[in-house]
């Protein structure tokens, strides 16, 4: 199939392989290399830990299947913003875009770019003072690549994703090799954490699965989207769930549940056991590449949301422009990247990310809820339909709502500030729609 332009001016160049790599690259960032230790602190055994990772993966797969139907119904740029705007009105769409720009996408990019800089600095022996400028430089680098067309950006992203999967494979093979043939302690109970509960581990685990919706933001550039989107989401999620489960088995086999809970850098600890400091450096390089690929996807996907908002008059009209040759939303990309760099330089990104981590999953749940509106409005006829409707979407919404409420109860300050950031968009929307939009050409 030849390239074909969409009504929005984008060109459909992403094939199934590209789209699947975007799903994998948008999910696997630094979380799987760091968060298992936090999750182990909040579970009582290796079995409970593995059940949490696999269960969260199944939940994410359900959400991905729901987004596959949404993408098949609306195969255009903008993703969740478009679904919320159509189902619940322009205010809902604006609040998603507002929070995405202010905190979720920009804060995630800033935080993960800093993780990249920390690991890159350790590999090359750079002083700690270089971390912040190196993180900002990484964001400039990934933004610059994508100014010259999605084809180049997709090729670079495919390389990033393949390298991060290679890092995961090396980690798994080394961990399981060191554990020997038995590995009987993988599922063992950790007596020191016999009463820690189970759900406390949900947030760090779900955070590691965040990003499965990014491909929908790029739906306007996917070839044969009604067929490609569902296949890419399903294939990508299966790869991620398998990788996450095997990595955790490797951690448990080498470190044990108690050792994993005590580790702040489990991937480096595993590789250090096998190859010493050289192994730790090798996995540090893999983590740096993984985080850089995540930043690439986050900025590219977020720019498409801002571009569509500009087209709708809910943001600056200049942001809606596509480059006449490369068909990329360069103004939107520079704006989002610039704000992420500001957060990186200010050092405030980490706190903002803590405030709004739950907001990303809340937006996913609300996005899935739009599926009921589309089914009622358009009927069940679609090129792809989520199986088990309406049970599976209800399960996804219910579990995410439970986690969000639990997070608010456990940490009301952070959750409250996160909600305030979102609610602060309401007066901005009212001012924009009544005053500023009238002055736009």
Which radius of gyration do the C-alpha atoms yield?
Answer: 21 Å
Question: What proportion strand?
Answer: under 5%
What structural class should be given to the helix and strand makeup? mainly alpha
Q: Tell me the total number of β-strands.
A: 0
pLDDT average, as an integer? 85
Q: What is the N-to-C order of secondary-structure elements (H for helix, E for strand)?
A: HHHHHHHHHHHHHHHHH
Considering DSSP H and I runs of 4 or more, what fraction of the residues is helical?
Answer: over 70%
What composes the largest sheet? none
Shape: globular
Number of discrete helical segments: 17
Features:
mainly alpha, 441 residues
Quick summary:
This protein is mainly α and 441 residues long. It contains 17 helices and no strands. Helix 1 packs across helix 7, helix 3 (46-73) crosses helix 14 and helix 14 packs across helix 16 (412-423).
Question: How would you portray this structure in words?
Answer:
The chain is an all-alpha fold and 441 residues long. Helix content is 75%, strand content 0%. α1 (16-27) runs parallel beside α10. The radius of gyration is 21 Å and the shape is globular.
Task: Give the SSE map.
Elements: H1 16-27, H2 31-41, H3 46-73, H4 80-88, H5 90-124, H6 131-145, H7 150-179, H8 202-209, H9 214-217, H10 225-262, H11 266-275, H12 277-311, H13 330-346, H14 349-378, H15 391-410, H16 412-423, H17 425-439
């Amino acid at each position: 199939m030849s390239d074909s332009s969409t009504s929005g001016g984008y060109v459909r160049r992403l094939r199934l392989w590209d789209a699947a790599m975007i799903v994998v690259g948008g999910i696997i960032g630094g979380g799987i290399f760091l968060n298992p230790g936090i999750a182990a602190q909040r579970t009582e055994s290796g079995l409970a830990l593995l059940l949490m990772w696999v269960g969260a993966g199944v939940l994410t797969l359900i959400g991905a299947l729901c987004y596959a139907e949404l993408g098949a119904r609306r195969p255009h740029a903008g993703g969740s913003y478009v679904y919320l705007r159509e189902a619940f009105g322009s205010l809902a769409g604006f609040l998603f875009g507002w929070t995405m720009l202010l905190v979720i996408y920009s804060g995630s990019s800033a935080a993960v770019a800093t993780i990249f800089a920390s690991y890159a600095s350790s590999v090359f022996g750079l002083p700690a003072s270089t971390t912040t400028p190196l993180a900002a430089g990484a964001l400039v680098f990934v933004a610059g690549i994508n100014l010259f067309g999605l084809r180049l950006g997709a090729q670079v992203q495919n390389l990033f994703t393949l390298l991060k999967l290679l890092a995961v494979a090396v980690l798994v093979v080394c961990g399981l090799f060191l554990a020997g043939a038995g590995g009987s302690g993988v599922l063992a109970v950790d007596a020191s954490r016999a009463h820690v509960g189970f759900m406390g581990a949900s947030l760090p685990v779900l955070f590691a699965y965040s990003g499965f919706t990014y491909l929908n933001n790029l739906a306007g550039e996917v070839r044969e989207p009604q067929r490609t989107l569902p296949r890419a989401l399903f294939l990508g999620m299966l790869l991620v769930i398998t990788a996450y489960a095997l990595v955790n088995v490797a951690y448990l086999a080498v470190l044990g549940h108690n050792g994993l809970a005590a580790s702040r850098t489990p991937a480096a600890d595993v590789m250090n056991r096998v190859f010493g400091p050289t192994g730790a450096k090798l996995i540090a390089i893999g983590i740096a590449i993984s985080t850089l690929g995540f930043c690439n996807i986050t900025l590219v996907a977020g720019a498409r949301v801002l571009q569509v908002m500009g087209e709708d008059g809910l943001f600056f009209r200049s942001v809606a422009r596509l480059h006449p040759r490369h068909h990329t939303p360069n103004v939107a990309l520079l704006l989002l990247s610039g704000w992420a760099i500001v957060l990186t330089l200010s050092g405030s990104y980490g706190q903002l990310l803590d405030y709004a981590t739950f907001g990303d999953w809340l937006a996913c749940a609300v996005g899935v809820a739009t599926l009921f509106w589309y089914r009622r409005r358009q009927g069940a006829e679609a090129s792809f339909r989520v199986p088990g409707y309406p049970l599976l979407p209800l399960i996804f919404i219910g579990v995410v709502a439970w986690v969000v409420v639990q997070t608010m109860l456990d940490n009301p300050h952070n959750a409250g500030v996160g909600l305030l950031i979102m609610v602060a968009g309401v007066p901005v929307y009212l001012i924009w729609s009544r005053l500023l939009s009238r002055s736009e050409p």
